[in-house]
Design brief:
160 residues, alpha+beta, 434 Repressor (Amino-terminal Domain), Cyanate Lyase, Chain: A, domain 2, two-stranded antiparallel ribbon, 6 helices, globular
């Protein structure tokens, strides 16, 4: 079985039972719903206790449970073709240079981690149409200046 086959099996069971992602993530628990759903869709791994909980919920075999605990091959072809996912890509293409400039001005020469990272998704009521509210927090990781000599900063933190 390939990981994509397991993802389809999980989606089929979810659909057949009429489960919502909220129900599924509440039943599995243990970490952010974004990470649990990401794992069930094949983009993340579940730690062993959560893989076991997911396997019990979905009635999966031991092999499928182990597959949920494996580090997956992540990502998708670019640019994405799904309209909702493409809009995130578009946000980065259009706003990325400004985000980069503002982050570097505040923190220095580095990146925002996509590994040591949190995301929260919620609905924000609005009379003109509800809004999707997403809050991202990622650890700032300064670039290391290899071979830095005496008096040269070793890392790219914002200089005073």
């Amino acid at each position: 079985m390939k990981r994509a086959d397991l993802t389809e099996k999980i989606l089929d069971i979810k659909r057949k039972n009429g489960w919502t992602w909220k129900y599924v993530t509440d039943e599995i628990g243990g970490m952010s719903p974004v990470l649990v759903v990401g794992a069930l869709l094949g983009q993340m791994k579940l730690v062993k206790p959560l893989a076991k909980a997911a396997a019990e919920l979905f009635g999966l075999s031991e092999e499928e449970e182990r597959m949920l605990n494996e580090v997956p091959y992540r990502g998708m072809p670019m640019p994405p073709t799904d309209p909702l996912i493409y809009r995130f890509y578009e946000m980065v293409m259009v706003n990325g240079p400004a985000w980069k400039a503002l982050i570097e001005e505040e923190f220095g020469d580095g990146i925002m981690s996509a590994i040591d990272f949190d995301i929260d998704i919620s609905r924000e009521a609005n009379p003109k149409g509800d809004r999707v509210k997403m809050t991202f927090t990622g650890k700032f990781l300064p670039y290391k200046y290899y071979g830095a000599e005496q008096g040269t900063p070793e890392y790219g933190f914002k200089e005073a």
